[in-house]
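Continuing the batch. This is chain 6 of the set; chains 1 through 5 are on the previous pages. Same settings as before, nothing changed between runs. Recording input and output for traceability.
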Amino acid sequence: MKKFISVLLAVIMLLSFTVTAFAEDTLETPDASSYEGYELFEYLLDFYLEHHVFQPGEADVLRTIIINLINNHPEVLEEIIYYLMKSADPYSQYFSAEQYEEFMSPTTYYGIGITVEYADGYIWVDELDSSSPAAQAGVNVGDYIYSVDGKKVASMVYEDVTAMIRGDEGTTVRMGFYRNDGDGGYVYEVDITRAKITSDSLSCYFTTDENGKTIGVAELRNFKSYLVYFHFVNFLENAVEMGVSDLIIDLRGNLGGSLSVCLDMINWLTPAKSKPLCIITVPKTGERTVYSSTGRGLKFDNICVLVNESSASASELFAKSLQDNGYATIIGSTTFGKAIGQTQYQQEDGSVISLSDFEVLSPKGTHYNGIGVIPDIEAVAPYTQEVTRSFEYLNTSNYKEAKNYAENDVVYALEQRLVLLGYLKTADRVFDKDTVNALWNYQERNNLECTATLTLETLVSITDTVNLVKLFGEYKDDAMIKAMDIISK
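Output for chain 6:
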């Protein structure tokens, strides 16, 4: 019996030694200490695939990882799906049935009814409906957002500012705006009651130039549904009935929408038959389809299309198609550069997979994905930043020297600022009646006590306003001005 136990222990010891030795011989003492994050995972995955006895396939291993992760942590499913859709491009998406219904519905939110533009830290009112709460409160297009509920927005993130403006229906937000209307810049504050806002995809109107010529203007915000198509066609037919032969189509900030809606709208601006509007290619199958005009389009003498770096997808196709066929002049800045499209695959449960599976080429067959549409005429963003000027010192220690009938450097410093703000024509160092009138006008427009003298309150206000002028500059829609110049010739 003792002999049997001794032999068994010897076998166990030998087996333990063999297993340990076998393991050490196989693993080759890997060193993963220098890897972090994804690099560590990639290192371990490669090592696992290379050395495992069953030589599993990478796809099977990754699938097993995902299955176990979802089964043990179901809360990560939504995030996994999100990153699955974004793995090859940023445009593919998965929508639940509820999400898709919300995505396709008109944009509704609770706010003050302004559309803003943002560039280089500036946020200004780009458009607003005359019936919106903001318009009723006296806000104008071109006003810069200065503060929200007392918080200055100059250093804030754009998304944070818009989130602060929105809120529950019936609540009030106090908005500060800076306005430069040509008679002197100033800040004003208004209380605005938030309301339910439904954003239309299309805003159309007719205006006249300095020569009395009527011009049709269409501001297209997206190409989401055929509702915008019908409104656009109605606008074109009204233009023809009115004898209007010149159009400005504003696609700035238009992120795209439906390919078919966009093509049908382009067709209405392409009077010749069989003109290529675009070419659709499916790289996976090699399929290539040319979409051409039917010849039903209406003829206009001048069409100017306004674009910027936020014009993307269908709006780029719209601009590129008209540009290549010689029907429009493109004005603005180079567009975003998205010329790959998504097909939406409806699932049995109502969910939708929106998958990037085709590329859009120009009517001439050129690629512009990642390049964008290059405008025929460059135009700057609709503001002009004031050049920082070197002024004489004006502060709390010397401002009292700027007084009636005085002639000195402090008066000159005050007058320099009043000239910049548009209240005075020239700075002549003399505190005369022109300086008095300028101060009075400044105080009146900025809700200060009208003394026509440089009070401490007025000094602080002037200093703040000068800083705003240097920060914000003057609203000037360069692209629209150049479009009007082309049409008015």
